[in-house]
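Write out the 3D structure for:
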Amino acid sequence: MNLAIVSKVCVALFLFVSGYGLTKQYRKVEKPYFKGTLKFLLRRFVNFYLPYWFCFVLVIAIGHLGGFTFHDAYPATRNTLKCVLLDVFGQMGYDSYLKPWWFNKLIIQLYFFFPFLYLLLRNQWVAILVLVLIPIMQVNASRVPGNLFFIVEGGLPAFYLGMVSANYQLAFPADKKTKTFRQLTAILSCIGLSWILTTLDDPYIAVLIRALLAFSIVVFICSFESQQKPVLVFLGKYATIMYLTHVLFIHLMPNVVYAARYSFLVFLVFLSVCLLSAILISFLQKRVQYDSLRLMIVKRIEKW
């Protein structure tokens, strides 16, 4: 089984959780809804952009000191200044300074679409219709000009499935009597969907399968008693910084990252380097009162 293919479900899993969490939060939006929605989106963008900009400046500075310049990162056919400005706002996609930053463009666009998508959840039959239409749009994404999936880059299936799960309690059913059945079904679904992913050549259908796989994983995890896992809570504190900086170490110190003979040790070394750097960056943010600035802006928005 090709684990590299299956591991792409991590993106779908994050999209699912994002759609789920945003839906839960949006229910608390105060009236009037236009002002409440505007405040909701402003908070999301502040919480996204301020940590991103801090890491952006550090990554660019360290990258240039290490010899990884704009000319190495951006396409030679494009204007460098324009590329930097687009990257500052997370809109460079797959041509970003660090390749994983393509996800910034996707999640920002989904934030903009979120209030409209939420309206589609208000009616159960409309929500079901949209769930039927999304796979049709996804499968035909390469054939239909102007298809929504060219805008959100295939992120809609997992994101909207997370929203539907939050609104209709699909991943967290209240009936505890079916716990074993849900666990067994989720495990079988994960195995079957993972196998399908390894045999697929169509990237558009693969996006749908990864969305279903993400849903199955969440159902399985949520079938257990709710308990905080200290290790996961600790890693979660630094997950965003690790995401924003991890590829830089591959560019700057490939001999260190790939020094181990076995792939599992390579992963542990890479994880350790990324985690250590994230802890240092988080400490630096607190020392210069940058995180306090973000919290102050968020509070100002809430009082507006």
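Residues 3-226 form one domain.
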